[in-house]
From TrEMBL:
Protein name (record): Unannotated protein
GO cellular component entries: proton-transporting ATP synthase complex
Family, similarity comment: Belongs to the ATPase epsilon chain family.
Keyword Transport included in the entry's annotation: yes
Organism of provenance: freshwater metagenome
InterPro entries in the cross-refs: ATP_synth_F1_dsu/esu (IPR001469), ATP_synth_F1_dsu/esu_N (IPR020546), ATPsynth_dsu/esu_N (IPR036771)
GO function term, MF aspect, one: proton-transporting ATP synthase activity, rotational mechanism
Record's subcellular location: Membrane
Key words of the record: ATP synthesis, CF(1), Ion transport, Membrane, Transport
ATP synthase F1 complex delta/epsilon subunit N-terminal domain span: 2-60
Membrane topology: Peripheral membrane protein
Length: 108
């Protein structure tokens, strides 16, 4: 398994020491025992590894194969169009930044 954490990218092999890490928005690449590779885009969360078991808990996730790139690019453009001309709009910055990270992750 390879994942992007808040401290950088980390690779985990089978039968290793336990690990608990906070994930950054991005993707997780998992290679199963039968050699199949699965890529999942996720947003916020953590993972733990204990011997041969991996647990991943995230706010939202979507398999790379299921991502609609056109929709993600449209979402990215909507977020970029947010203007901050008034104090009321400043409160929307956090939400817009989160939406931007989600859209960019989906495009990757």
């Amino acid at each position: 398994m390879v994942a992007k954490t808040v401290e950088g990218e980390i690779g985990i092999l089978a039968a290793r020491e336990p690990v608990l890490a906070v994930l950054s928005d991005g993707t997780v690449r998992v290679e199963t025992i039968d050699g199949t590779t699965m890529v999942v885009a996720f947003h916020g969360g953590f993972f733990s590894v204990d011997s041969d078991r991996v647990a991943i808990v995230v706010v939202a996730a979507e398999a790379a194969a299921d991502i609609d790139v056109v929709r993600a690019e449209a979402a990215l453009e909507r977020v970029k169009a947010v203007c901050l001309d008034s104090p009321e709009e400043v409160a929307a910055v956090c939400l817009a930044e989160t939406c931007l990270r989600v859209a960019v992750t989906h495009i990757r």
